[in-house]
Amino acid sequence: MEKSHKWWIAVALSVGLGSSLAQGAEGAKKPASGSGFSLFRKAPVKPAGAEHPAEVEWLHDPQEAFDQAEESGRPVLLVLGGKRCSWCRKLEKDTLADAKVSALIRDSFVPLHVNAEDQPDLAEVLAVESYPTTIVLTADGGLVSSTPGYLPAVKYRKALQQSLAKIAQSESVVRQASGEVPLEKPSKRR
């Protein structure tokens, strides 16, 4: 069994989510490629002032996201929100639609959106207390960071970049510990 599967199975077994995760995955609608869409609303939404909507292919199936993460070596960006959450809509409209944020998400993450109203047990397992919450996870389900609430685009992008730096630093430590990369000698200061 692959590592990514183990994490979701452990979560599902610990709170009895097995059937709700499967139902959520089956009922999730994927956006049409190239169209603007809303994570939290049914109707497509185009970012204000944008000629072309930011195209982030949001996944709604956790298993598919972790499979892609394992194949690509990219972390999972999990956004938990709700349909009736005004801050979630603001995050979507102002932050996730920002061209620089969208580019960073597309290039560096496997984006996953879960509607916490449909899967409240998952939010409980992940200790999510407010919406929206953005969680960065490694391909094997390790928690990198959790950012509750709304952030404007510049701060959101910085938080994502810090998560990527944390992952890179972790990977470097692991490579050094395994002997793949020699330890650097400390520089002599005068």
In short:
With 190 residues, this protein is an alpha+beta fold.
Task: Give a description of the structure.
The longest helix has 26 residues, at 153-178. Helices cover 46% and strands 12% of the residues. The model is unreliable at 1-6, 8-37 and 40-53 (pLDDT under 50). Helix 5 runs parallel beside helix 7. The chain is built from seven helices and four strands, in the order H-H-H-E-H-H-E-H-E-E-H. It has a four-stranded mixed sheet, with helices on both faces. The termini are far apart. The protein is of the alpha+beta class and 190 residues long. It has one domain (3-18, 56-177): Glutaredoxin (3-Layer(aba) Sandwich). It is globular.
Q: Describe the main β-sheet briefly.
A: 4 strands, mixed
Work out the helix count.
7
Q: What amount of the residues lies in strands?
A: 5-15%
Rg: 18 Å
CATH superfamily: Glutaredoxin
* Class computed from helices, strands and strand pairing: alpha+beta
Number of DSSP-assigned strands:
4
CA-CA gap between termini:
54 Å
- The second-level CATH architecture is 3-Layer(aba) Sandwich
Low-confidence stretches: 1-6, 8-37, 40-53
Shape: globular
Q: Order of strands across the widest beta sheet?
A: 2-1-3-4
Count of discrete domains: 1
Helix-strand topology string:
HHHEHHEHEEH
Helix content: 40-55%
